[in-house]
Amino acid sequence: MTSPTPTTGAREALKDASQLRQKRMIAEHYTRLARAPETGSRSVYTFVPGNLTELLRSFDLLPVLPEINALQSAMRGKSKEYIAIAEKAGQSEDVCTYVKADYGMMKAGNLGPTGEKLPDPDLLLLSYTGCFTFLKWFEMLRHEYKAPVVMLHVPYQADGRITESMRNYVVAQLRDKVIPELERISGKRYDEDRLRENLARSARAEEDLVAVLQSARRRPSPIDSYFGAVYYVGPIFSAFRGTEDACDYYRELRAEIDERVAQGLGPVTPDGQIGRERFRLVVEGPPNWTHFHEFWRMFADEGAVAVASTYSKVGGVYDTGFRHDPDHPLETLADYCMGCYTNLSLPSRVDMICRYVEEYEADGVLIHSIKSCNSFSAGQLAMLREIENRTGRPGGFIESDLVDPRYFSAANLKNRLESYFQMIDQKRGRLSA
After folding, report:
1. pLDDT means over runs of 10, the chain (433 residues)
2. Which residue, 43, 97, 49, 38, is CA-closest to 73?
3. Counted domains in the chain
4. 9 within a domain of the structure (yes/no)
Protein backbone atom coordinates (compact mmCIF):
# COMPACT_ATOMS: atom_id res chain seq x y z
CA MET A 1 0.00 0.00 0.00
CA THR A 2 1.42 3.37 -0.96
CA SER A 3 2.16 5.87 1.76
CA PRO A 4 1.00 9.49 1.57
CA THR A 5 3.54 11.92 0.20
CA PRO A 6 4.06 15.20 2.13
CA THR A 7 3.38 18.31 0.08
CA THR A 8 3.38 22.02 0.79
CA GLY A 9 0.63 22.66 3.34
CA ALA A 10 -1.71 19.69 3.67
CA ARG A 11 -0.40 16.28 2.79
CA GLU A 12 -1.94 14.53 -0.16
CA ALA A 13 -2.49 10.77 0.07
CA LEU A 14 -1.52 8.86 -3.04
CA LYS A 15 -4.25 6.64 -4.40
CA ASP A 16 -3.80 2.91 -3.90
CA ALA A 17 -4.39 0.43 -6.70
CA SER A 18 -7.82 -0.45 -5.31
CA GLN A 19 -8.86 3.23 -5.25
CA LEU A 20 -7.77 3.66 -8.84
CA ARG A 21 -9.65 0.51 -9.80
CA GLN A 22 -12.84 1.75 -8.12
CA LYS A 23 -12.56 5.14 -9.81
CA ARG A 24 -12.20 3.43 -13.18
CA MET A 25 -15.14 1.09 -12.48
CA ILE A 26 -17.42 4.01 -11.61
CA ALA A 27 -16.39 6.06 -14.65
CA GLU A 28 -16.99 3.12 -16.98
CA HIS A 29 -20.39 2.47 -15.44
CA TYR A 30 -21.53 6.05 -15.90
CA THR A 31 -20.24 6.03 -19.46
CA ARG A 32 -22.33 2.92 -20.16
CA LEU A 33 -25.33 4.70 -18.68
CA ALA A 34 -24.73 7.80 -20.80
CA ARG A 35 -24.56 5.68 -23.94
CA ALA A 36 -27.61 3.58 -23.07
CA PRO A 37 -29.93 5.42 -25.51
CA GLU A 38 -27.50 4.61 -28.35
CA THR A 39 -26.66 1.04 -27.34
CA GLY A 40 -30.22 0.08 -26.45
CA SER A 41 -29.28 -0.84 -22.87
CA ARG A 42 -32.10 -0.59 -20.35
CA SER A 43 -31.71 1.03 -16.95
CA VAL A 44 -33.45 0.43 -13.65
CA TYR A 45 -33.54 3.05 -10.92
CA THR A 46 -33.44 1.49 -7.45
CA PHE A 47 -32.18 2.04 -3.88
CA VAL A 48 -29.07 1.10 -1.91
CA PRO A 49 -30.75 -0.83 0.94
CA GLY A 50 -32.32 -3.98 -0.48
CA ASN A 51 -31.11 -3.50 -4.03
CA LEU A 52 -31.26 -6.52 -6.34
CA THR A 53 -28.14 -5.84 -8.37
CA GLU A 54 -27.34 -9.50 -9.01
CA LEU A 55 -30.84 -10.07 -10.37
CA LEU A 56 -30.76 -6.93 -12.52
CA ARG A 57 -27.41 -7.86 -14.02
CA SER A 58 -28.66 -11.35 -14.85
CA PHE A 59 -30.97 -9.54 -17.30
CA ASP A 60 -28.18 -7.20 -18.52
CA LEU A 61 -29.98 -4.26 -16.94
CA LEU A 62 -27.98 -1.26 -15.72
CA PRO A 63 -28.61 -0.15 -12.11
CA VAL A 64 -28.97 3.55 -11.28
CA LEU A 65 -29.11 4.57 -7.61
CA PRO A 66 -30.57 8.05 -6.94
CA GLU A 67 -29.14 8.09 -3.40
CA ILE A 68 -25.63 7.70 -4.81
CA ASN A 69 -26.27 10.42 -7.36
CA ALA A 70 -27.45 12.75 -4.58
CA LEU A 71 -24.43 12.24 -2.35
CA GLN A 72 -22.04 12.59 -5.29
CA SER A 73 -23.76 15.85 -6.17
CA ALA A 74 -23.07 17.02 -2.63
CA MET A 75 -19.41 16.06 -2.78
CA ARG A 76 -19.12 17.98 -6.06
CA GLY A 77 -20.72 21.08 -4.52
CA LYS A 78 -23.92 20.81 -6.59
CA SER A 79 -26.53 19.83 -4.01
CA LYS A 80 -27.22 23.37 -2.77
CA GLU A 81 -28.27 24.39 -6.28
CA TYR A 82 -30.35 21.24 -6.77
CA ILE A 83 -32.12 21.55 -3.41
CA ALA A 84 -33.01 25.18 -4.24
CA ILE A 85 -34.58 24.01 -7.52
CA ALA A 86 -36.63 21.40 -5.65
CA GLU A 87 -37.82 23.81 -2.96
CA LYS A 88 -38.74 26.41 -5.57
CA ALA A 89 -40.87 23.69 -7.19
CA GLY A 90 -42.71 23.17 -3.90
CA GLN A 91 -40.69 20.59 -1.97
CA SER A 92 -40.77 21.22 1.77
CA GLU A 93 -37.66 22.06 3.82
CA ASP A 94 -38.38 18.95 5.87
CA VAL A 95 -38.29 16.55 2.92
CA CYS A 96 -35.29 14.20 2.79
CA THR A 97 -32.51 16.14 1.11
CA TYR A 98 -31.50 13.10 -0.95
CA VAL A 99 -34.92 13.38 -2.59
CA LYS A 100 -34.58 17.12 -3.23
CA ALA A 101 -31.03 16.82 -4.56
CA ASP A 102 -32.13 14.05 -6.91
CA TYR A 103 -35.19 15.99 -8.05
CA GLY A 104 -33.15 19.15 -8.64
CA MET A 105 -30.49 17.19 -10.54
CA MET A 106 -33.19 15.76 -12.78
CA LYS A 107 -34.64 19.21 -13.47
CA ALA A 108 -31.15 20.61 -14.17
CA GLY A 109 -30.47 18.07 -16.91
CA ASN A 110 -29.82 14.85 -14.93
CA LEU A 111 -26.06 14.98 -15.38
CA GLY A 112 -24.14 12.30 -13.50
CA PRO A 113 -20.81 12.70 -11.69
CA THR A 114 -18.86 12.39 -14.95
CA GLY A 115 -20.83 15.26 -16.50
CA GLU A 116 -22.71 12.94 -18.84
CA LYS A 117 -26.50 12.70 -18.93
CA LEU A 118 -28.07 9.77 -17.17
CA PRO A 119 -30.73 7.82 -19.05
CA ASP A 120 -34.37 8.04 -18.06
CA PRO A 121 -35.44 4.93 -16.16
CA ASP A 122 -37.04 2.07 -18.03
CA LEU A 123 -38.24 0.80 -14.67
CA LEU A 124 -38.42 2.10 -11.10
CA LEU A 125 -37.69 -0.83 -8.77
CA LEU A 126 -38.88 0.17 -5.32
CA SER A 127 -37.54 -2.01 -2.52
CA TYR A 128 -39.09 -0.90 0.75
CA THR A 129 -36.54 -1.49 3.54
CA GLY A 130 -37.60 0.53 6.53
CA CYS A 131 -37.78 3.94 4.85
CA PHE A 132 -41.24 5.30 4.04
CA THR A 133 -39.68 8.15 2.05
CA PHE A 134 -38.67 5.64 -0.63
CA LEU A 135 -42.35 5.18 -1.48
CA LYS A 136 -43.04 8.88 -1.99
CA TRP A 137 -39.73 9.42 -3.78
CA PHE A 138 -40.51 6.89 -6.49
CA GLU A 139 -44.11 8.06 -6.67
CA MET A 140 -42.70 11.46 -7.63
CA LEU A 141 -40.24 9.94 -10.14
CA ARG A 142 -43.03 7.91 -11.72
CA HIS A 143 -44.93 11.14 -12.30
CA GLU A 144 -41.87 12.91 -13.75
CA TYR A 145 -40.52 10.11 -15.94
CA LYS A 146 -43.82 8.36 -16.76
CA ALA A 147 -41.95 5.15 -15.97
CA PRO A 148 -43.48 1.92 -14.63
CA VAL A 149 -42.92 1.01 -10.99
CA VAL A 150 -42.61 -2.43 -9.47
CA MET A 151 -42.56 -2.61 -5.68
CA LEU A 152 -40.85 -5.20 -3.53
CA HIS A 153 -42.39 -4.93 -0.10
CA VAL A 154 -39.89 -6.06 2.51
CA PRO A 155 -41.22 -6.97 5.99
CA TYR A 156 -39.71 -5.00 8.84
CA GLN A 157 -37.70 -6.99 11.40
CA ALA A 158 -39.79 -5.83 14.36
CA ASP A 159 -38.84 -8.88 16.46
CA GLY A 160 -35.22 -8.95 15.34
CA ARG A 161 -35.44 -12.12 13.27
CA ILE A 162 -36.44 -13.33 9.83
CA THR A 163 -39.19 -15.95 9.83
CA GLU A 164 -39.97 -18.47 7.12
CA SER A 165 -43.27 -16.76 6.36
CA MET A 166 -41.47 -13.42 5.88
CA ARG A 167 -38.98 -15.06 3.53
CA ASN A 168 -41.72 -16.78 1.54
CA TYR A 169 -43.60 -13.49 1.24
CA VAL A 170 -40.61 -11.75 -0.37
CA VAL A 171 -39.76 -14.73 -2.59
CA ALA A 172 -43.34 -14.81 -3.92
CA GLN A 173 -43.06 -11.13 -4.89
CA LEU A 174 -39.73 -11.73 -6.61
CA ARG A 175 -41.10 -14.68 -8.55
CA ASP A 176 -44.54 -13.31 -9.41
CA LYS A 177 -44.03 -9.54 -9.68
CA VAL A 178 -40.41 -8.45 -9.99
CA ILE A 179 -39.00 -11.08 -12.35
CA PRO A 180 -41.88 -10.88 -14.86
CA GLU A 181 -41.41 -7.11 -15.04
CA LEU A 182 -37.66 -7.48 -15.55
CA GLU A 183 -38.36 -9.99 -18.32
CA ARG A 184 -40.75 -7.54 -19.94
CA ILE A 185 -38.42 -4.54 -20.04
CA SER A 186 -35.28 -6.52 -20.91
CA GLY A 187 -36.85 -8.84 -23.46
CA LYS A 188 -34.99 -11.75 -21.84
CA ARG A 189 -36.10 -14.80 -19.93
CA TYR A 190 -35.14 -15.31 -16.32
CA ASP A 191 -31.89 -17.30 -16.19
CA GLU A 192 -31.45 -18.76 -12.72
CA ASP A 193 -28.03 -20.23 -13.52
CA ARG A 194 -26.77 -16.79 -14.42
CA LEU A 195 -28.22 -15.37 -11.21
CA ARG A 196 -26.45 -18.12 -9.24
CA GLU A 197 -23.13 -17.15 -10.84
CA ASN A 198 -23.66 -13.52 -9.85
CA LEU A 199 -24.55 -14.52 -6.29
CA ALA A 200 -21.42 -16.66 -5.99
CA ARG A 201 -19.34 -13.65 -7.00
CA SER A 202 -21.16 -11.53 -4.43
CA ALA A 203 -20.30 -14.00 -1.68
CA ARG A 204 -16.61 -13.89 -2.60
CA ALA A 205 -16.56 -10.09 -2.51
CA GLU A 206 -18.51 -10.02 0.76
CA GLU A 207 -15.95 -12.31 2.39
CA ASP A 208 -13.13 -9.91 1.55
CA LEU A 209 -15.14 -6.86 2.62
CA VAL A 210 -15.82 -8.38 6.04
CA ALA A 211 -12.11 -9.11 6.48
CA VAL A 212 -11.36 -5.47 5.71
CA LEU A 213 -13.96 -4.11 8.15
CA GLN A 214 -12.95 -6.52 10.91
CA SER A 215 -9.31 -5.46 10.60
CA ALA A 216 -10.36 -2.46 12.71
CA ARG A 217 -10.29 -4.75 15.76
CA ARG A 218 -6.51 -4.29 15.73
CA ARG A 219 -4.55 -1.52 17.41
CA PRO A 220 -3.95 0.71 15.65
CA SER A 221 -6.85 0.17 13.33
CA PRO A 222 -5.55 0.15 9.75
CA ILE A 223 -8.81 1.64 8.48
CA ASP A 224 -11.42 4.20 9.40
CA SER A 225 -14.72 2.32 9.44
CA TYR A 226 -16.87 5.40 8.98
CA PHE A 227 -15.20 7.85 6.62
CA GLY A 228 -12.86 5.37 4.98
CA ALA A 229 -15.55 2.70 4.79
CA VAL A 230 -17.62 5.01 2.58
CA TYR A 231 -15.18 4.13 -0.19
CA TYR A 232 -14.84 0.48 0.77
CA VAL A 233 -18.57 -0.28 0.64
CA GLY A 234 -19.20 1.74 -2.53
CA PRO A 235 -18.96 -1.06 -5.12
CA ILE A 236 -20.83 -3.67 -3.09
CA PHE A 237 -23.64 -1.33 -2.06
CA SER A 238 -24.24 0.08 -5.50
CA ALA A 239 -23.93 -1.13 -9.09
CA PHE A 240 -21.18 -3.74 -8.91
CA ARG A 241 -22.25 -6.53 -6.58
CA GLY A 242 -22.16 -9.82 -8.42
CA THR A 243 -19.49 -8.71 -10.92
CA GLU A 244 -15.90 -9.79 -11.46
CA ASP A 245 -14.96 -6.13 -11.06
CA ALA A 246 -16.25 -6.23 -7.49
CA CYS A 247 -14.36 -9.44 -6.75
CA ASP A 248 -11.12 -7.97 -8.11
CA TYR A 249 -11.60 -4.73 -6.18
CA TYR A 250 -12.20 -6.39 -2.82
CA ARG A 251 -9.39 -8.88 -3.28
CA GLU A 252 -7.03 -6.00 -4.00
CA LEU A 253 -8.34 -3.89 -1.13
CA ARG A 254 -7.98 -6.77 1.33
CA ALA A 255 -4.35 -7.29 0.30
CA GLU A 256 -3.65 -3.58 0.82
CA ILE A 257 -5.21 -3.59 4.29
CA ASP A 258 -3.33 -6.78 5.21
CA GLU A 259 -0.13 -4.95 4.30
CA ARG A 260 -1.07 -2.01 6.53
CA VAL A 261 -1.72 -4.43 9.39
CA ALA A 262 1.67 -6.07 8.86
CA GLN A 263 3.35 -2.66 9.00
CA GLY A 264 1.39 -1.52 12.06
CA LEU A 265 -0.05 1.47 10.19
CA GLY A 266 -3.19 3.41 10.99
CA PRO A 267 -5.75 4.80 8.53
CA VAL A 268 -4.96 7.09 5.63
CA THR A 269 -7.10 10.21 5.30
CA PRO A 270 -7.31 12.66 2.37
CA ASP A 271 -4.64 14.70 4.22
CA GLY A 272 -2.36 11.74 4.83
CA GLN A 273 -1.56 9.25 7.57
CA ILE A 274 -3.13 9.58 11.02
CA GLY A 275 -0.18 9.96 13.35
CA ARG A 276 -1.48 8.38 16.58
CA GLU A 277 -4.72 6.63 17.38
CA ARG A 278 -6.05 8.42 20.48
CA PHE A 279 -9.76 7.60 20.39
CA ARG A 280 -11.56 4.51 19.08
CA LEU A 281 -15.19 5.23 18.25
CA VAL A 282 -18.32 3.45 17.07
CA VAL A 283 -20.34 5.87 14.94
CA GLU A 284 -24.08 5.71 14.28
CA GLY A 285 -25.68 7.58 11.37
CA PRO A 286 -24.67 8.61 7.84
CA PRO A 287 -21.87 11.12 7.16
CA ASN A 288 -22.33 14.66 5.95
CA TRP A 289 -21.48 14.76 2.25
CA THR A 290 -21.31 18.50 1.52
CA HIS A 291 -18.25 18.95 3.77
CA PHE A 292 -17.05 15.36 3.86
CA HIS A 293 -13.30 15.97 4.01
CA GLU A 294 -13.64 18.86 6.47
CA PHE A 295 -15.84 16.65 8.68
CA TRP A 296 -13.32 13.79 8.53
CA ARG A 297 -10.47 16.21 9.36
CA MET A 298 -12.19 17.15 12.64
CA PHE A 299 -11.78 13.53 13.73
CA ALA A 300 -8.35 12.89 12.21
CA ASP A 301 -6.83 16.00 13.79
CA GLU A 302 -7.77 14.62 17.21
CA GLY A 303 -6.50 11.12 16.45
CA ALA A 304 -10.08 9.83 16.51
CA VAL A 305 -10.68 6.69 14.42
CA ALA A 306 -14.02 5.03 13.77
CA VAL A 307 -13.45 1.32 14.34
CA ALA A 308 -17.04 0.41 13.48
CA SER A 309 -20.09 2.19 12.09
CA THR A 310 -23.70 1.47 11.30
CA TYR A 311 -23.59 3.39 8.03
CA SER A 312 -21.22 0.82 6.57
CA LYS A 313 -24.06 -1.70 7.05
CA VAL A 314 -26.85 0.32 5.43
CA GLY A 315 -26.54 -1.64 2.19
CA GLY A 316 -26.09 -5.02 3.86
CA VAL A 317 -25.03 -6.50 7.18
CA TYR A 318 -22.37 -9.09 6.38
CA ASP A 319 -20.29 -9.26 9.55
CA THR A 320 -22.92 -11.32 11.37
CA GLY A 321 -22.36 -14.13 8.87
CA PHE A 322 -24.75 -13.41 6.00
CA ARG A 323 -23.43 -14.18 2.53
CA HIS A 324 -25.44 -14.39 -0.66
CA ASP A 325 -26.14 -18.08 -1.24
CA PRO A 326 -26.18 -19.24 -4.89
CA ASP A 327 -27.84 -22.52 -3.89
CA HIS A 328 -30.97 -20.66 -2.76
CA PRO A 329 -31.06 -17.66 -5.12
CA LEU A 330 -34.44 -16.06 -4.42
CA GLU A 331 -34.41 -16.93 -0.74
CA THR A 332 -30.99 -15.33 -0.27
CA LEU A 333 -32.12 -12.16 -2.05
CA ALA A 334 -35.06 -12.02 0.37
CA ASP A 335 -32.81 -12.47 3.41
CA TYR A 336 -30.45 -9.80 2.13
CA CYS A 337 -33.25 -7.25 1.76
CA MET A 338 -34.69 -7.98 5.20
CA GLY A 339 -31.25 -7.79 6.84
CA CYS A 340 -30.24 -4.28 5.79
CA TYR A 341 -29.55 -1.96 8.72
CA THR A 342 -32.48 0.38 8.13
CA ASN A 343 -34.80 -2.64 8.21
CA LEU A 344 -33.73 -3.57 11.75
CA SER A 345 -35.68 -2.63 14.86
CA LEU A 346 -34.21 -0.17 17.35
CA PRO A 347 -33.44 -2.93 19.90
CA SER A 348 -31.56 -4.83 17.16
CA ARG A 349 -29.59 -1.70 16.31
CA VAL A 350 -28.72 -1.18 19.97
CA ASP A 351 -27.57 -4.80 20.26
CA MET A 352 -25.37 -4.37 17.17
CA ILE A 353 -23.76 -1.16 18.44
CA CYS A 354 -23.13 -2.60 21.90
CA ARG A 355 -21.48 -5.63 20.32
CA TYR A 356 -19.26 -3.34 18.24
CA VAL A 357 -18.24 -1.37 21.34
CA GLU A 358 -17.06 -4.54 23.06
CA GLU A 359 -15.56 -6.40 20.08
CA TYR A 360 -13.68 -3.38 18.75
CA GLU A 361 -12.70 -2.04 22.21
CA ALA A 362 -14.20 1.36 21.51
CA ASP A 363 -13.78 4.30 23.86
CA GLY A 364 -17.25 5.61 23.11
CA VAL A 365 -20.24 5.83 20.80
CA LEU A 366 -20.92 8.91 18.70
CA ILE A 367 -24.26 9.55 17.04
CA HIS A 368 -24.39 11.79 14.00
CA SER A 369 -28.04 12.75 13.71
CA ILE A 370 -29.29 13.72 10.26
CA LYS A 371 -31.96 16.43 10.14
CA SER A 372 -33.83 15.09 7.13
CA CYS A 373 -33.35 11.31 7.55
CA ASN A 374 -35.98 9.80 9.81
CA SER A 375 -34.85 6.24 9.03
CA PHE A 376 -31.68 6.88 10.99
CA SER A 377 -32.53 9.73 13.33
CA ALA A 378 -35.78 8.49 14.89
CA GLY A 379 -35.07 7.09 18.34
CA GLN A 380 -31.35 7.87 18.38
CA LEU A 381 -31.32 9.64 21.74
CA ALA A 382 -33.13 6.72 23.37
CA MET A 383 -30.66 4.37 21.70
CA LEU A 384 -27.72 6.39 23.00
CA ARG A 385 -28.97 6.27 26.61
CA GLU A 386 -29.41 2.50 26.39
CA ILE A 387 -25.97 1.98 24.84
CA GLU A 388 -24.31 4.10 27.54
CA ASN A 389 -26.10 2.13 30.27
CA ARG A 390 -25.13 -1.23 28.80
CA THR A 391 -21.52 -0.52 27.86
CA GLY A 392 -20.46 2.08 30.39
CA ARG A 393 -18.80 4.03 27.56
CA PRO A 394 -19.57 7.73 27.07
CA GLY A 395 -21.86 8.78 24.24
CA GLY A 396 -21.72 11.86 22.05
CA PHE A 397 -24.35 13.50 19.86
CA ILE A 398 -23.79 15.81 16.90
CA GLU A 399 -26.13 17.05 14.17
CA SER A 400 -26.01 18.13 10.52
CA ASP A 401 -27.56 16.85 7.31
CA LEU A 402 -26.89 14.55 4.38
CA VAL A 403 -26.54 16.90 1.43
CA ASP A 404 -27.90 20.30 2.53
CA PRO A 405 -24.97 22.62 3.34
CA ARG A 406 -27.28 24.97 5.27
CA TYR A 407 -27.26 22.50 8.18
CA PHE A 408 -23.50 22.03 8.44
CA SER A 409 -21.99 24.29 11.11
CA ALA A 410 -18.27 23.59 11.27
CA ALA A 411 -17.72 25.63 14.45
CA ASN A 412 -20.59 23.95 16.29
CA LEU A 413 -19.53 20.46 15.25
CA LYS A 414 -15.89 21.07 16.14
CA ASN A 415 -16.81 22.40 19.58
CA ARG A 416 -19.05 19.43 20.30
CA LEU A 417 -16.47 16.93 19.13
CA GLU A 418 -13.70 18.54 21.19
CA SER A 419 -15.96 18.47 24.27
CA TYR A 420 -16.77 14.82 23.62
CA PHE A 421 -13.12 13.83 23.29
CA GLN A 422 -12.34 15.71 26.52
CA MET A 423 -15.12 13.75 28.22
CA ILE A 424 -13.54 10.46 27.08
CA ASP A 425 -10.15 11.62 28.39
CA GLN A 426 -11.68 12.61 31.73
CA LYS A 427 -13.35 9.23 32.08
CA ARG A 428 -10.06 7.51 31.30
CA GLY A 429 -8.42 9.61 34.04
CA ARG A 430 -11.03 8.63 36.60
CA LEU A 431 -10.71 4.95 35.71
CA SER A 432 -6.91 4.98 35.96
CA ALA A 433 -6.83 7.02 39.19
Report:
1. 33 72 95 96 95 97 96 96 96 93 96 92 91 90 96 93 97 98 98 98 98 98 97 95 97 97 94 93 97 97 97 94 97 96 94 98 97 88 97 97 96 97 88 56
2. 97
3. 1
4. no
